[in-house]
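Researcher: I'd like a candidate sequence for this fold, 186 residues long. If you have to choose between options at a position, lean toward the conservative one.
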């Protein structure tokens, strides 16, 4: 859903959207597995920067909730998670704050996003908020055994016969030397 400043001139835009699974591409290890409900409001905030300079900011306040799968950090099995969150964000037109060279930004400016000339895509804002609200690392269970580093077998389902300490091929040339042996002098 595209939200443009022109839509918000007369009154705020009420949002009550249900985004189906697959509508938003998150990351390789995160997948939406049901509808994602987004309810809130978009407002226009006209920022006065001078006698004749105005900037149309979009304020987006919303609540979202849905169900997701995130890959387990140890065994890569999907972990189901219900997720809900609220956000209150400000977006400015892209390039409006661009200045030549480097400059320091205030803490308030770190909370500002930017929208393209055509407007702000609700899906982009929601995607970012979902990713920020998911845990950085998911486990299918606390005692997850993970994958065998040698054969890739999921140790939660079956035990493999691989050596616990894989041999590093870079040390192969030293494999025949026993501890305590002295090199022979010629």
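Model: Candidate sequence:
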């Amino acid at each position: 859903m595209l939200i443009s400043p022109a839509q918000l001139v007369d009154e705020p835009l009420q949002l009550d959207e249900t985004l189906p699974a697959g509508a938003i591409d998150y990351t390789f290890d995160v997948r939406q597995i049901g509808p994602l409900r987004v309810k809130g409001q978009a407002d226009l905030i006209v920022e006065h920067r001078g006698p004749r300079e105005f900037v149309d900011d979009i304020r987006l306040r919303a609540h979202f909730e849905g169900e997701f799968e995130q890959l387990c950090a140890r065994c890569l099995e999907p972990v189901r998670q219900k997720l809900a969150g609220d956000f209150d964000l400000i977006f400015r037109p892209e390039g409006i704050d661009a200045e030549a060279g480097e400059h320091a930004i205030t803490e308030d400016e770190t909370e500002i996003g930017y929208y393209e000339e055509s407007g702000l895509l609700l899906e982009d804002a929601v995607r970012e908020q979902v990713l920020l609200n998911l845990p950085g690392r998911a486990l299918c269970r606390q005692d997850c055994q993970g994958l065998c580093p040698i054969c890739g077998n999921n140790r939660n389902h079956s035990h493999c016969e691989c050596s616990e300490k894989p041999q590093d091929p870079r040390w192969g040339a030293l494999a025949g030397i026993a501890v305590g042996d002295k090199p022979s002098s010629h």
